[in-house]
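User: I'm curious what two different proteins look like when written out as structure tokens. Can you demonstrate?

Assistant: Sure. I'll show them one after the other, since each token string lines up with its own sequence. Here's the first protein:
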Amino acid sequence: MIENIDHILNKGIIFIRITENDANGFYFDKNKGYSISFHHSKTKKYKKGMLVLLENQPENEYFLFFVKNKQKADSSHKKIILSREYKKINCNIRKIISNLPKRLLNDTQKRLKENLFVFGEKTGVSIFNDIFDNDEKVKEWILNNLSNRDVIYKLEKIAVDNILALADMESQDEVKDDGTLLEDLIITKDASSFFDNEFDKSSDNYGTYFYKKNNESLAIIIANRTQIEKFMGIDLVYINEIHQSITLIQYKMLKQENNEWISRDNSLKTQIEKMNLVFKDLDKNSMTYRMSANPFFIRFIKNKEIRNTVQSYTIPLEQYLIMENNGEFSGSKGGFYISSSKLKGRSLSINTVNELIRNGFFGIYPENYNQLLKIIKDIQKNNADTPIALGYKKYLKNKN
């Protein structure tokens, strides 16, 4: 096994058994963060970030989770909260255990009489070696979900300019000490708060947020600083599975100059060229209604809070191109110059954009959905510049 896997397994592996009495609660909560309580005297055994092997006894099935958090349950108990991310695995734990050396076998069989315990280090490694031999994807799932969590926790404690759109934003502020809003963190906040109170939300470690509710299913991918932005010129990808639409948005910050809010970011021109190349290959006709066949938008954000709110202007790429052709983005000396006065009254609010994405009014036509989704997933799969990879490089650089 590679070193990262060894490090994870050596932390200890928690075993949880779901009995008949717990089965309904488990199935209801497993996508939301299932929790299990234990006496506070055992609190040191169960730690945030540990791997969990869960046996659902009534159905004779097994799942992998990790410990997302640990909290107080009542005056004498604490609880561990499992991740929303999980993987169902094929294994027979008792058959695997029967192959253990006699000393480990006897100890583990005694422990298996309990519904909650931590495997011994050697036992845990032996069990997962067997599981890995049967399913290589288990190792991949663990690495994707756990291998960099220690690094993430350390990144959350270092300077905010080293935090590059990490998946878990709850402990971070999107504002610098001088009140300047950080684009990276605003993007992540928008991705992580899409109708937050209405949907069951989960996320992975690569900056993708999943929103599910009854017959609605959406995903938002943080493309900022990744290969997706490099190839497509965008920061966020909205994927509406039900309406088979994909909407793509680029973010630009506006800085205050006297009484105006201005962007002089020339990189937008290159990014728009990339957007146009993607759009050129998409079908422009469909029997499905969209307000526009063009899925690209640009969101301009004031880089300071105004009355404790983030103010932004979102416009379609088509509108931007018309305004540019009309000379509305040229300064008095001919330079590139986008001002809030040109955008005010001619833009959409973030809530309006989100509502229209949610209901399928924005985004590509269904005829293009599978094609573009495959391209995005392929780029994401082979992405060497995911937020975690970038953060990890930054952490190692600072450490050395």
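Here's a second, unrelated protein for contrast:
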Amino acid sequence: MAQTLKQAILDDPEDFELPSSETNLREAFVNMAQHMAALEEQLKEAEEANQPVEKSEELEALVAKIQKAAISGIRKQMSWRLTAKEGRAKWSYDGVCSDSSAFGLLMGLDNPPTWKMKKYTKDEFVTFLGDHHRRSARYDTLSIVDKSNVNIRWNEATGEFKFSGSYGTAW
């Protein structure tokens, strides 16, 4: 019944014949409504299947990759300077993180960050990146200093971030 009505409507949309009784007409409308509901459900399932859902292992792998690159980039900038002895030598690291959830995970947050700039203490920053930021130079060890904060800038639109702070001899 519903198939024949559908074909009649598609063949001649201007002048198709409606079912003769009210019961048949109601049945045709119910069948069409059920069919539309089934199609909407299929569409919803297809859209959910196409969403790029990253698994926690993938996020953790991305976070580990960013941590390793950031630590390496920061350590490469730590060289002996006169200001390093006083703990005033500057470092900065620019990076890109394509997934805001991964950056939030890197910063110890449950969700993507809502801020554009934030200051962390050295201890908080070391908690996120790990304690691998020390470097030997001229019979001493250089590291991020306690007395200065680490500035973190985050641009969610582009995924760019910047870490900056000071380093000096370990006291």
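A detail about the second structure: The CA atoms of residues 144 and 154 lie 20 Å apart.
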